[in-house]
Design a protein that fits this description.
Number of helices: 9
CATH topology: Rhopdopsin 7-helix transmembrane proteins
Number of strands: 0
Number of domains: 1
Distance between the termini: 45 Å
Strand content: under 5%
Largest sheet: none
CATH architecture: Up-down Bundle
Order of helices and strands: HHHHHHHHH
Radius of gyration: 19 Å
Shape: globular
CATH class: Mainly Alpha
Length: 235
C-alpha cells in the first residue's frame, strides 16, 4: 500500500480532479443560467493550478534545472496561494452570491476581505517561511470561513421550501463535500511537525487521508454535476 501511495497518490488525485472539471465543462450549458457556472470555472482553475504545481518534478532532472538552489525548489508557496488562500476567497464569493439572507451575505463578504488582508500581511511578515512550510493559522481561518459558508447555506435550506428538493440541488452536494473535506483535513495541520522524511509512517497516513478525502470530494462534485437539476438553486 505504501509503495502504491508513493507512486500513484498524485496521479489518482489529479484524475478525479480532472474528471470533475471536464464533466463541468461538458455540462456547462446545462448550468449556464445559474451560479454553478462559477463553480465549473473554479474546478478548471484548480486543475490548471495543480498541473503547474508539478513544476517541482522538473527541477531536479528537467528543464527547470535553473531553479535549483532557489526558494522555488518547493511548492509550498504556490499551494498556499492558489488553494489555502485562493480557494477560500472563491467560496466566500460563491456563497455570497447564492445566499439570500443579507446578514449572512454581509458576514461572508467581510470575512473574505478580512481573511485576504490577514493572509497577505501574515505571508509578508513570514516571507522566508512562506517558501518552506504551510501556515496553520491560515488553514484554520480558511476552514472557519468554509464552515460559515456551509452552515449558512444549510440554515437557509432548512428554513425554506428548498428542503423538499434539496437532494436535487448542486449547491447541497458542493456544501456537503467541502464541509466534510475541511472537517477531515483541517486537524492534520496540528501534526505537520511530524511531516519529515524521518517519519514515513505519518507521511503515508497523511497521504491516505488526503487521497480518501480528495476522491470523495471530487467524485461528489462529478456526481452532482451529472445528477442535479440546475433550476433547483438558491439565488
Amino acid at each position: 500500500m505504501n509503495e502504491f501511495l508513493l507512486e500513484y497518490n498524485n496521479t489518482i488525485t489529479f484524475c478525479v480532479e480532472i474528471l470533475a472539471a471536464v464533466t463541468g465543462l461538458v455540462l456547462y450549458n446545462k448550468y449556464k443560467p445559474t451560479a454553478a457556472t462559477y463553480f465549473i470555472y473554479f474546478l478548471a482553475y484548480l486543475s490548471i493550478c495543480d498541473v503547474f504545481n508539478t513544476y517541482v518534478y522538473y527541477i531536479k532532472d528537467g528543464f527547470l534545472y535553473f531553479l535549483r538552489g532557489t526558494v522555488f525548489i518547493r511548492n509550498f508557496w504556490w499551494t498556499t496561494l492558489y488553494w489555502k488562500i485562493g480557494a477560500i476567497l472563491f467560496f466566500s464569493f460563491y456563497y455570497h452570491g447564492i445566499l439570500a439572507n443579507k446578514i449572512f451575505k454581509m458576514i461572508l463578504k467581510y470575512s473574505g476581505y478580512s481573511f485576504l488582508i490577514f493572509s497577505s500581511i501574515y505571508v509578508l511578515y513570514n516571507w522566508d517561511a512562506y517558501f518552506v512550510q504551510f501556515f496553520p493559522i491560515i488553514s484554520i481561518l480558511g476552514a472557519v470561513i468554509v464552515f460559515l459558508c456551509t452552515a449558512f447555506y444549510f440554515f437557509e435550506i432548512l428554513n425554506s421550501e428548498k428542503i423538499l428538493t434539496f437532494y436535487r440541488s448542486i449547491n447541497f452536494y458542493i456544501s456537503a463535500a467541502i464541509f466534510i473535506w475541511w472537517l477531515i483535513i483541517t486537524p492534520l495541520v496540528f501534526y505537520d511537525i511530524y511531516n519529515s522524511r524521518y517519519d514515513w509512517n505519518f507521511i503515508f497516513l497523511k497521504w491516505q487521508i488526503y487521497l480518501f478525502a480528495n476522491i470523495v470530494m471530487y467524485l461528489t462534485f462529478t456526481f452532482a454535476l451529472i445528477f442535479c437539476n440546475p433550476d433547483i438553486d438558491i439565488q
